[in-house]
Write a structure and sequence with these properties.
Elements (H helix, E strand, L loop, with lengths): L1 E6 L16 E6 L14 E8 L6 E7 L20 E6 L7 E10 L2 E5 L5 E2 L2 E7 L7 E6 L6 E8 L41 E6 L7 E4 L12 E8 L7 E8 L11
Antiparallel strand pairs: 1-2, 1-3, 3-4, 5-10, 5-12, 6-7, 6-11, 8-9, 9-10, 11-14, 12-13, 14-15
């Protein structure tokens, strides 16, 4: 994977040849384990761009205002030729785990749910679950064939009923073995969903960057204990023109008629 570091937040086009090298600071390639390192000596705004043949381009914007090491893992999605879409959820801060859910009304008053606990329903597919959380947090759902459904994609805070036994957390005391253990990451505390910096991205055929990205809103009241973030509705009949942004927090499961408004 080719990794490019730019100063400032960088806009990119829909294809690789539209990415110029203005404000390029460093360019490196990942090693055989998929790891890379970059040196940043000044505080400020930066952009990372990840490129690999036959994969979608990924972009990560971030602010540096500390001398601490910054860890960022990126999951890349392979290009596809079919009419399906892929929705990816990823986040960089606490809580340790979040769940991506796709809900739609398959028949009248008969709702279909696709998530890690039900990995396939009416041509929607949940292929992986990376449960490491925090810096490694990522989940995806594929819609294999857009039907005449109105899909609702939303995020749920993971409910741990295992008395902390389900969380595979390991605290980093030093970085001597960082290249020998790619699963190392900071111990994550249980935090509010609105602090997670979670985002949802849509990938579609013909566009090499995510066709749509929705970031969780900045919530000023961090005392509210929300359990859900309602992302967006996606009208399968309209394709990418059928995105209806919700972008709201909920304490309980979002209402079933949320896409009807």
């Amino acid at each position: 994977v080719t990794v490019k570091l730019f100063r400032g937040y960088k806009n990119i086009g829909q294809n690789e040849d539209e990415i110029n090298d203005i404000n390029l600071l460093q360019k490196v390639a990942t090693n055989k384990n998929g790891l890379y390192s970059l040196d940043i000596y000044q505080n400020g705004q930066y952009t990372l761009i990840f490129m690999k043949d036959d994969y979608f381009i990924e972009k990560y914007e971030f602010m540096v205002d500390t001398s601490d090491m910054i860890v960022k893992n990126i999951g890349m999605i392979q290009l596809f030729n079919s009419g399906k879409i892929v929705v990816k959820m990823d986040w960089e801060n606490n809580p340790p785990d979040l769940d991506l859910i796709c809900r739609f009304e398959a028949k009248e008053n008969n709702f279909c749910y696709t998530f890690f606990g039900n990995n396939k329903c009416v041509q929607t597919n949940y292929p992986i679950d990376n449960r490491k959380g925090g810096f490694n947090g990522e989940e995806i759902i594929e819609v294999e064939a857009l039907g005449e459904y109105n899909y609702f994609f939303y995020v749920r805070k993971y409910f741990d009923i295992s008395n902390n036994k389900a969380k595979d957390e390991k605290k980093i005391n030093d970085f001597e073995n960082e290249y020998n253990n790619i699963s190392l990451y900071y111990k994550q505390n249980d935090e509010l969903i609105q602090k997670s910096k979670v985002k949802l991205s849509i990938y579609a055929n013909g566009i090499k960057i995510p066709a749509f990205i929705l970031n969780i809103p900045n919530e000023e009241n961090f005392n509210e204990k929300y359990n859900y973030w309602g992302g967006f509705c996606f009208d399968g009949k309209k394709g990418l023109n059928g995105i209806n942004i919700i972008n709201k927090f909920f304490e309980m499961e979002p209402p079933r008629n949320i896409c009807n408004g």
